[in-house]
Specification:
The complex is a heterodimer of chains A (about 110) and B (about 400). Chain A has two helices and six strands; from the N terminus they run E-H-E-E-E-E-H-E. Chain A is an alpha+beta fold. Classes of the chains: A alpha+beta (about 110), B mainly alpha (about 400).
């Protein structure tokens, strides 16, 4: 099993969710996060003074899937979240040791 | 004799002007600070309103408006002694009670304006002590000079609704307090932006609406003078807003909400002394001048002089009030649609009087505020320690947080 962590532009959430629904991804977790990459930050102006905003708002998606589904999910997120401009985000894939469904106590792939 | 229409309008205006402070100014300021200090700013405005109310009835009203000495009133109506239910305020058609309440709302907002100079770092005890002393030592005498029959009134200084009494006193004092208190940690290069720009807009618009009571209420009658004061007030506010917006748009490529409503307040502060004396043409001039000049002064104070007058009280209110007071002299000329001059007065001679008014009140406000802030420092201290400034005043001083969205805890 793998845990796919995708950092995306907030306004791409709907498109990503649709793309994932199409390939039958059954669940994910979203959080609002802030960070910077090549996009760096941006500036905002209040009463003529420029403020540097170092951390840009993004959404972080966490999707747990079985090994054979990883490429499909990464591909779907990449397609749906891409604008081609700096700031589109990143996808990380890491090994997932164990999963437990709290309601039933099922573990492993059954619990996904 | 009491006139029902006039009394009804001043009762209404009293409500409007109190609404300017609570919650208008409080929200306007609270949105501009960081989230960790929102409650402290709301608390400053609320506590000042209550404290001033008590002091006003206890003696500040009497010092400002009762008595014939040109420098200061007397205490013959301290604790509202001798204020009868049916008494008419001298020279008006409204009851004494209504006049006292109406003027009280001005006395409330003036020290509350100074809050913008010391947010995010001042001790709460210092806020109370300084504001109380300031009301007695600065506000009450200056009000007496200009509106209470004092020496500036005798000289013929024109201040319809508070360009001198409210905005010059608060603006100059704010600058002195900001210098005495010192900069916030991180000023000017490493401060985060306002935490809730939408709240700034909401507060500014409450101020805008309340300002109709401030300026049109200062007619003290429900008639033609109130009507024109309301018209020019609204016009100056709208034009100053557009002016500030245009400057930001041209300079930074984006017209901002915080900028535009700051222009609104600049226009309102600047038209205040002139509102009963000028016509629509005067309002246009004041709108354009205030939007541009106050914008420039914000940059001068914060970026050139590096003074942390945190929410630009001096640059917006002080500069606006002083500019409007000076512009009143030429713009009240009948040739510009104003009310014209009294017999033997010219634009030039009126201008000299306006300069004396602004200058003397600015000096008194500055010197007295300096002394009062030093007294406050000696008695209770001015600044919180750096750790408290970092944590924010809400939790450390008031034991509350402005925002408990998730994981707020539970009762015990």
């Amino acid at each position: 099993m793998k845990l796919i962590i995708a950092i995306i532009q907030p306004y791409k959430m709907d498109a990503v969710r649709e793309a994932l629904t199409e390939i039958s991804v059954s669940g994910l977790t979203v959080s609002e996060v802030r960070g910077y990459g090549r996009q760096r930050g941006h500036t905002e102006v209040y009463r003529g003074a420029e403020y540097t905003i170092n951390y840009v708002p993004k959404l972080k998606l966490e999707i747990a899937v079985d090994d054979d589904k990883v490429d499909e999910v990464v591909d779907a997120v990449t397609r749906a979240a891409r604008t081609g401009k700096v700031g589109d985000g990143k996808i990380f894939v890491i090994d997932l040791d164990a999963v437990t469904r709290i309601r039933t106590g099922e573990t492993g792939v059954q619990a996904l | 004799m009491i006139n029902g229409a006039d009394t009804a309008w001043i009762l209404t205006s009293t409500v409007l002007v109190l609404f300017m402070t609570l919650p208008g100014l409080a929200l306007f300021y609270a949105g501009l600070v960081r989230a960790k200090n929102i409650l402290s700013v709301l608390m400053h405005c609320l506590a000042i309103a209550c404290l001033v109310t008590v002091l006003w009835f206890a003696g500040a009203y009497s010092l400002a408006f009762v008595g014939t000495n040109p420098w200061i009133g007397d205490l013959s109506q301290a604790f509202l002694f001798g204020v009868e239910r049916g008494a008419v305020h001298p020279g008006t058609t409204i009851p004494d009670t209504v006049y006292i309440m109406f003027q009280m709302t001005f006395a409330i907002i003036t020290p509350a304006l100074i809050v913008g100079a010391y947010v995010e770092r001042i001790k709460f005890s210092a806020v109370l002590l300084f504001s109380g002393l300031w009301l007695i030592v600065v506000y009450a005498p200056v009000t007496h000079w200009v509106w209470g029959g004092g020496w500036l009134a005798i000289m013929g200084a024109k201040d319809y609704a508070g360009g001198i009494v409210v905005h010059t006193t608060a603006g100059i004092s704010a600058l002195i307090v900001a210098i005495a208190l010192g900069k916030r940690d991180g000023f000017p290069r490493h401060l985060p932006p306002p935490h809730a720009s939408w709240m700034v807009m909401v507060g500014a618009c409450m101020l805008w609406v309340g300002w109709f009571g401030f300026n049109a209420g200062s007619a003290l009658t429900a008639g033609a003078d109130a009507g024109m004061a309301m018209l020019v007030t609204h016009m100056a506010a709208a034009i100053a807003s557009l002016t500030w917006m245009a400057i930001e748009w041209a300079r930074f490529g984006k017209p901002s909400v915080v900028g535009m409503v700051t222009g609104t307040i600049a226009g309102l502060a600047t038209i205040t002394p002139a509102s009963g004396f000028v016509g629509p043409l005067g309002a246009v001039v004041i709108g354009v001048v205030s939007g541009a000049f106050c914008y420039a002064m914000v940059q001068v104070v914060k970026q050139r002089m590096i003074i942390d007058d945190s929410l630009d009280v001096f640059a917006v209110h002080g500069v606006g009030g002083m500019t409007g007071t000076l512009l009143t002299a030429p713009l009240m000329d009948a040739a510009f649609g104003g009310v014209g001059f009294a017999e033997g007065v010219t634009a030039g001679s009126q201008f000299v009087v306006q300069v004396i008014g602004v200058g003397s009140v600015a000096i008194w406000s500055g010197v007295a505020s300096f002394v009062l802030i030093k007294i406050t420092q000696a008695l209770v201290g001015l600044r919180v320690v750096p750790e408290i400034e970092t944590q924010g005043l809400d939790l450390t001083t008031h034991g509350e947080s402005g925002y408990n969205v998730a994981m707020g805890g539970s009762t015990q």
